[in-house]
Automatic annotation (TrEMBL):
GO terms for cellular component: mitochondrion. This is NXNL1 protein. The lineage of its organism: Eukaryota, Metazoa, Chordata, Craniata, Vertebrata. Residues 1-158 form the Thioredoxin domain. Pfam families: Thioredoxin_8 (PF13905). SUPFAM superfamilies: Thioredoxin-like.
Length: 207
């Protein structure tokens, strides 16, 4: 899926507005994931109603508060906002893992033509190889919520990535599935150590 944006600049929706432009970074952000292209505009009444639903949908599938492992899901915001300020203001209310095209990027129009987007809001759902799963999933997301991701996952035939925990999009940190085991072992070791110290102190007092 990264091939769709080869040679293009994507912006991470974090405080620093980091750019994702190398092939390696694009691969980390988009490969082996179901990709949503969200065509919307902050000034559109229907988009204002739908955007909170999409935000909740995305967060419940990717945020560590809800899931131990982030689902294999990516999103690129393709705006029809009237100004760069409108786009920036809208993105501030959206998840940090969202990506977007720069406001002035003409590639947005190419994407609209490629996926026959004539109205907003539109959410195009793509397999990792670029094939279309859904031309517009707005109704599906509104009606089913996160449950519809399972259908997309099966359709996309994603490579199982269960050995990876949720990614931290700020620093691209990747953690091993053994982390929880190591943390548990650390806690057990600390408890054993504390008990041994307590027993030693008791033995010393009794002697």
């Amino acid at each position: 899926m990264a091939s769709l944006f080869t040679g293009k600049v994507l912006v991470v929706n974090n405080r620093d507005q980091d750019e994702v432009e190398t092939e390696r970074e694009l691969g980390r952000a988009l490969e082996n994931k179901v990709l949503l292209l969200y065509f919307g505009a902050a000034g559109c009444p229907r988009c204002r109603r739908f955007a909170p639903l999409l935000r909740d949908f995305f967060v419940r599938l990717t945020d560590e508060f809800y899931v131990e492992r982030a689902s294999q899901l990516g999103l690129v915001y393709v705006s029809r906002d009237a100004t760069a300020q409108q786009q920036a203001a809208f993105l501030k209310t959206m998840p940090k893992r969202w990506l977007s095209l720069p406001f002035e990027d003409k590639f947005k129009r190419e994407l609209e033509l490629r996926f026959a987007v004539s109205d907003v809001p539109t959410v195009v759902v793509l397999k990792p190889n670029g094939e279309v799963i859904a031309r517009n999933a707005v109704e599906e997301i509104s009606r089913m919520g996160p449950a519809c991701f399972r259908n997309w996952q099966e359709a996309a035939e994603l490579v199982d990535r269960n050995f990876l925990l949720a990614e931290d999009f700020d620093d691209w940190a990747r953690r091993s599935i053994t982390d929880p085991i190591r943390r548990l072992k650390y806690k057990l070791d600390k408890r054993t150590e504390a008990k041994n110290e307590e027993k030693t102190e008791q033995d010393a007092e009794s002697s």
